[in-house]
Amino acid sequence: DEELLELLGIESERLAPVSDEQVGDWFPPLGDGACSNVGAGCITPERAALMVGTSGALRVVRPHDERAPRPGLFLYRLDEGRTVEGGSLSDGGNLYAWLERTLRLPDERRLSERAPDAHGLTFLTLLGGERSPGWDPRARGILAGLTFESTPLDVLQAALEGVAYRFAEILDLMPEVSEIVATGAALDASPEWTQILADVLGRPILRGVAEGSVRGAAVVTLERLGVSPPEPPVGDPFLPRPHRTEAHRLARERQRELYETLT
Length: 263
Hints:
The protein is α/β, with parallel strands linked by helices and 263 residues long. The chain has one domain: 2-Layer Sandwich (Nucleotidyltransferase, domain 5). The chain is 35% helix and 15% strand. It is built from eight helices and eight strands; from the N terminus they run ααββββαββαβααβαα. It has helices spanning 2-8, 32-39, 93-102, 152-171, 185-188, 191-201, 212-224, 245-262; strands at 47-52, 56-63, 74-77, 82-89, 122-124, 142-144, 179-183, 205-207. It has a six-stranded mixed sheet with strand order 3-4-2-1-7-8, with helices on both faces. A hairpin with a 3-residue loop joins β1 and β2. The longest helix has 20 residues, at 152-171. The radius of gyration is 23 Å and the shape is elongated. It starts with a helix and ends with a helix.
């Protein structure tokens, strides 16, 4: 810009020439959630990644358009052509860790022997406040129905089922989802919890890869370089058990009524 150079009193010979020559590839940083979806192979609106680490999230990847996020869900860019949509929970593996610190928990494998809602408790699992779908940070956890007969195993089962019911509230806003991939350390360590989620959500749940976010970052890099990444390995599915559906439906309705009463 000769006019600008004259105003500044700088001779053009003193400056390096302007060039648009590409000297290297640059990849913008991506969030953990987006990478987790890509790493698990959940890159369509029909296939969701269900992550339970410290907290929890249920996310899909969809083609980018100018739509607003659906009420109760978040929406953000993955790249120029894709967006991530979903919902999140404040309570996940941190709730399990709190129960371990607070109660003398029995062997979790005993849960597989129990009927759904065998405890009669209603656990509103909002100990860390509410994210999706109500986004109320003032919300607090409630455990209703305790008696002298209630046991640590009852409380554990109610907690894991309670988180599953909160995920169901999110899934109701994403009816196009037909398949779910489980990710995150909490579900990696708990096939019992994964089976509860399959029963409650009524969808097959596949076991995802470990360190899905790391794999996702590598996959996006390969895509940018024009290399087709391999399909992610998945384990055998946890299939929903229809004979448990009605008990979970009634228990979930109790949780919803408690939520509406107290929030």
